[in-house]
């Protein structure tokens, strides 16, 4: 059988406030095209379909459309699990009738022990879980850490192995020895938050999600697919795409297929004058998402606004010699920041931390809270 391995779609995510909907739709379109060209027998989605546990309506509609396109229109079986960014409860809605169209979506640990039986392969779908879930399932309070929990999980899975078939595992965890970027949420629940590599040894292939780089783990039988879109500057050098997994061969053969972004993510280190001089240079892609590090020593007036005329998608701006109050995110000086209203400051802070803007409802709540605080101050 031939399967396509993808993960970490993070539908609804933003890049320093920039909407990535078009980038994510473009990546999906290429994934669908690769699946058709390779004539795969199904798609593996190894968790983090959504970026938030409470996704917006637009994100839910986008995921629904994508799954329907692959499963109902293209008639491709889907083998998916929930990740640490997903709400397992919300993602599980509708699963009782999904199997009628060969859409398998596992969101609970108990589902991991019943393999999906394919002609030459047993496919174990293990959703992201915390050690407490393993405690409950095995009724064993001695399970405290992720490595202990995963060992029990694998041992239970192996009791269901069919020796005449290959064994594939789909999981969403940090595997010991993997490399990370700053766009990934570290899993620290339960103390020791890494799965030892030796627990993966008995599987012919392990399709992993959670880390966003395809080269994060170097094992002959296990791969992270990586995210199909770059979600931070730390991913700028990564090559995005999907793995094609061929179980007809021994050992299982994996081939990487690249995805080309609409707008790339790049880091640039240069002087202000050199950057402005590229305005008419057709060899420079000014529409990319860029993190700019200026080599200038002197403050530059209105630097962000001037650079945005050339590079409209600047995500960060800094100086090569470190922090400078004249060169900040959004190009604001300390004096300009002090002149901002509390609501504007809150909006800026929220966008830098959450990577998205306040919603109208959140703004309404914040204004109400600020009003109450002001009234309390006046009464005091």
From TrEMBL:
Residues 1-212 form the Calcineurin-like phosphoesterase domain. InterPro entries: Calcineurin-like_PHP, DNA_Repair-Maintenance_Comp, Metallo-depent_PP-like, Mre11_N, SbcD, SbcD_C. The keyword Hydrolase applies. It comes from the Bacteria. Residues 263-353 form the Nuclease SbcCD subunit D C-terminal domain. One of its GO terms (molecular function) is exonuclease activity. Keywords: DNA recombination, DNA replication, Endonuclease, Exonuclease, Hydrolase, Nuclease. Belongs to the SbcD family. Heterodimer of SbcC and SbcD. SbcCD cleaves DNA hairpin structures. These structures can inhibit DNA replication and are intermediates in certain DNA recombination reactions. The complex acts as a 3'->5' double strand exonuclease that can open hairpins. It also has a 5' single-strand endonuclease activity. This is Nuclease SbcCD subunit D. It comes from Secundilactobacillus hailunensis.
């Amino acid at each position: 059988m031939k399967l396509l391995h993808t993960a970490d779609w993070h539908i609804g995510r933003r890049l320093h406030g920039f909407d990535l909907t078009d980038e994510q739709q473009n990546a999906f379109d290429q994934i669908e095209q690769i699946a058709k060209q390779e004539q795969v027998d199904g798609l593996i989605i190894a968790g983090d379909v959504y970026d938030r546990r409470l996704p917006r309506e637009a994100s839910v509609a986008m995921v629904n459309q994508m799954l329907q396109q692959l499963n109902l229109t293209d008639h491709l079986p889907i083998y998916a699990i929930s990740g640490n960014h997903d709400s397992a409860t919300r993602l599980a809605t509708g699963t009782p009738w999904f199997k009628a169209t060969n859409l398998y979506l596992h969101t609970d640990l108990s589902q991991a022990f019943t393999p999906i039986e394919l002609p030459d392969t047993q496919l174990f779908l293990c959703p992201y879980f915390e050690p407490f879930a393993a405690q409950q399932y095995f009724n064993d309070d001695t399970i405290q850490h992720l490595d202990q929990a995963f060992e029990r999980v694998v041992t239970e899975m192996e009791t269901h192995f069919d020796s005449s078939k290959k064994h594939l595992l789909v999981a969403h965890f940090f595997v010991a020895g993997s490399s990370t970027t700053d766009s990934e949420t570290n899993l620290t629940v339960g103390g020791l938050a890494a799965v030892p590599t030796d627990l993966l040894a008995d599987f012919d292939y392990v399709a992993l999600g959670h880390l966003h780089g395809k080269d994060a783990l170097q094992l002959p039988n296990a791969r992270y697919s990586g995210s199909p879109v770059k979600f931070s500057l730390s991913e700028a050098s990564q090559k995005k795409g999907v793995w094609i997994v061929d179980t007809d061969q021994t050992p299982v053969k994996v081939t990487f297929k690249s995805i080309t972004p609409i707008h790339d993510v790049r880091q640039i280190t240069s002087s202000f004058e050199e950057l402005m001089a590229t305005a008419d240079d057709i060899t420079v892609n000014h529409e990319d998402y860029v993190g700019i590090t200026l080599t200038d020593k002197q403050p530059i007036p209105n630097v962000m606004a001037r650079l945005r005329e050339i590079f409209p998608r600047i995500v960060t701006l800094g100086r090569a010699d470190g922090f400078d109050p004249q060169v900040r995110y959004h190009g604001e000086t300390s004096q300009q920041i002090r002149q901002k209203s509390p609501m504007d400051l809150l909006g800026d802070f929220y966008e830098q931390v959450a990577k998205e803007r306040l919603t109208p409802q959140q703004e309404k709540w914040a204004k109400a809270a600020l009003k109450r605080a002001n009234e309390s101050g006046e009464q005091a």
